[in-house]
Design goal:
This protein is an alpha+beta fold. Helix content is 36%, strand content 17%. The chain contains 3 helices and 4 strands. Strands 1-2-4-3 form a 4-stranded antiparallel β-sheet, covered by helices on one side. Strand 1 and strand 2 form a beta hairpin. Helix 2 packs across helix 3. It is globular and about 40 Å long. It starts with 21 loop residues before the first helix and ends with a helix.
């Protein structure tokens, strides 16, 4: 049986590997809730909604700690009670398993 994404660790990636093929992106995406892949298949995105600005920023700070511990960092945009999170692996110009691992861990953090 395959290990759940949130139990895996992100691996250092400095290029030299290929972005995931579409079938693997779709397989990993099916293991997440509420995330979508942009048509170019180079970004994984999700919007989180909170009660207000303070709650949003508190979550951003927890997410930042998680991202730092994983060595994989999302892009994000805060709009008062909304947080848009975008994941991609810039070193390969697309999605890797790291993006899906961090997405799963962000979801656990939000739960």
């Amino acid at each position: 049986m395959e290990m759940e994404l949130e139990k895996k660790q992100c691996l250092a990636c400095e290029g030299g590997v290929s972005a995931l093929p579409q079938d693997e992106v779709e397989r990993l995406l099916s293991q997440l809730s509420g995330w979508s892949v942009e048509p170019s298949r180079s970004e994984l995105r999700k919007r989180f909604r909170f009660a207000g600005f303070v709650e949003t920023i508190a979550f951003v700070n927890r997410m930042a700690d998680l991202a730092e511990s994983e060595g994989h960092h999302p892009d994000f945009c805060v709009r008062f009670a909304n947080l848009d999170v975008t994941l991609t692996t810039h070193a390969v110009g697309g999605l890797t398993e790291n993006d899906f691992i961090l997405a799963a861990k962000i979801d656990v953090l939000a739960a």
